[in-house]
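Replying to the earlier thread about multi-chain prediction with a worked example.

Input:
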Amino acid sequence: MNHSEYLKGWSDRYRTDALENILPFWLEHGWDRVNGGVYTCVDREGRLMDSTKSVWFQGRCGFIYSFAYNNLDPRPEYLEFAKSCIDFIEAHCFDPADGRMYFEVTADGQPLRKRRYVFSECFAAIAMSEYSLASGDKTYAEKALRLFKDIQRFIATPGMLEPKYLPTQQAVGHSVTMILINTAARIREAIADPALNEQIDKSLEMIRTLFVHPEYKALLEMVTPDGKLIDTLNGRTINPGHCIETAWFLLEEAKYRNWEPELTKMALQILDWSWDWGWDEEFGGIINFRDCKGFPNQDYSQDMKFWWPQTEAVIATLYAYEASGDDKYLEMHKKASDWMYAHLPDPEFGEWFGYLHRDGTVAQPAKGNIFKGPFHIPRMLIKSPMIIGEILKK
Amino acid sequence: MNHSEYLKGWSDRYRTDALENILPFWLEHGWDRVNGGVYTCVDREGRLMDSTKSVWFQGRCGFIYSFAYNNLDPRPEYLEFAKSCIDFIEAHCFDPADGRMYFEVTADGQPLRKRRYVFSECFAAIAMSEYSLASGDKTYAEKALRLFKDIQRFIATPGMLEPKYLPTQQAVGHSVTMILINTAARIREAIADPALNEQIDKSLEMIRTLFVHPEYKALLEMVTPDGKLIDTLNGRTINPGHCIETAWFLLEEAKYRNWEPELTKMALQILDWSWDWGWDEEFGGIINFRDCKGFPNQDYSQDMKFWWPQTEAVIATLYAYEASGDDKYLEMHKKASDWMYAHLPDPEFGEWFGYLHRDGTVAQPAKGNIFKGPFHIPRMLIKSPMIIGEILKK
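Result:
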């Protein structure tokens, strides 16, 4: 097969999986038609095993079904489901005391937990901006932008987000830095505001100057405010899937800037490094965690294979091929995609497993929990054909 | 072999392992002779991989080396090491603002993290009371008692320990209930005070009325304040190793009460149930987590085998044999001890591995981190010969 046949084959497979397997699964088993919004804690067969609602997933699901409507197939039920999640968010997921969002709520929206991060807010914002594009209702883009500015204010206001560590250990995190790039970039599709590009510039500068560490060939997860390694088990942790996700956020931004050479180069470098840390030569797949000095990582799931690092590698390698034309990225894509398809889909009850042992066997077969639901898998299945379309246009 | 030969064989093996392997390992690799106290984040060979100090382990180690001095061999370096940990605690581990203790500090004692629980305080208190018995210095027993009363005050004072969940979900935890039994019982050995037995009575009543759930044949980890199942993934979680540890805390208390029949019966019932949930018939060993309704548990380590559930099963089955004379508990002891010895000890670099896959292979080989250090293994190695001694006296 030549390259374009391979690419078309992948594209068809991904689209079909989104349309016929993943998106219908959550419409059927996730959508709460009583209270609105989405349940994600479902077992292998899709049976509800916990009615706790993840606030992240109200936003993530609202984004995904709007994104599918915009880029895959404009089915009315996609828009309805997305709207249901966004309505649930607006009715129940904000703490009136300070405008911050909760982390978990009950089925009918009573608050259960609030945490010290802004991810709930970021996912809600991209749901609103994507829904604005899908529905044509500009007010949702405005809401997304207001929420984005609230996020910036929460981060900038001392005392609003309680730090995990006491002042002895000052730290800055890669997670929030990278999610703000993607959040701003998604909102920018729906509404213009200088704050969005300013945030992207700022986050890119932080990644370049603080988190990229060539001496370890690694993008670190947490460093001191002046970018030094925190020489502890947590500070030395490499999360290859997370870095690979960042790599494609950067490639997406590089493309927006007509493949700005410096940014493209940094993104490809991060992908190459992170693939080397993450790809398991013995069993295949992207492994969860490594230590940049080679000590045993102490996260209990360190040698497991989760679903999302695999899906992020599938997107990132395609983007890298689009950016560079280098065949090695198509080979990496084939490896990542083949391993993913050999281990993740559930042939019996649909959707994909999420939690595998290092050797690819299933550790536990639930289809969702507060961290797994309709996000990484459908985003990859929708996004990859879009990238392939761009490659084939050349 | 007859029973007493088996029992003597186990006793010798445990004592020898404590004296020649486990206790020397932490004296050599853990003791911080510069700042005092103990490091626990060491790799397979005992090399320091993170100088963060676990506050739990300053207390746990202070307890263990005092306990070894009192019950195994009165070696002066045991007492010195214990004192070093307790001195470090008193110098660095209390927050002067509210008297509560930290969770992690730096090598030289600067505070890193404080959490919402009282485990740091409980471990410090048993270190002090055990050290009081070892050294003969009664002031440490008085300190332990004062700290115990502080713990009770922290728990009783609204607002001092920030709850994990918002008021929508009121919950009480098995962990703190059971640790207070053991903490009070340890302190009672060194100093008399009505508050100690009152706490034990109160905790026993809570276990009996709130956490024991015959309809699931389970001791639950978290329930509503009136003892109802919280029907969520977390609420349904069974932690067999934890329940088995509670079972022997209860057997110890039952013995203190001349084998009070009701308490003995409840403890044996908890052990039987928890063994049935935890013992892995396919690969052996006690597994980490189960769901009381049979859904897949969502903890990433749910099917792993950690070191401490194995050591707790070794103690609990011996105690159960002492309590009941029922041979089935000796058979369970043999199973647990054989599996433990087949998989945990590191023949090459000493000490024991802590984190195994379900099939007993090593997931990562470090000897310690902020949750593994000199505690469960040496406690089992010292405690088991003490129980065997009592059995053989009969």
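The longest helix of chain B spans residues 3-29.

Feel free to reuse this layout for your own posts.
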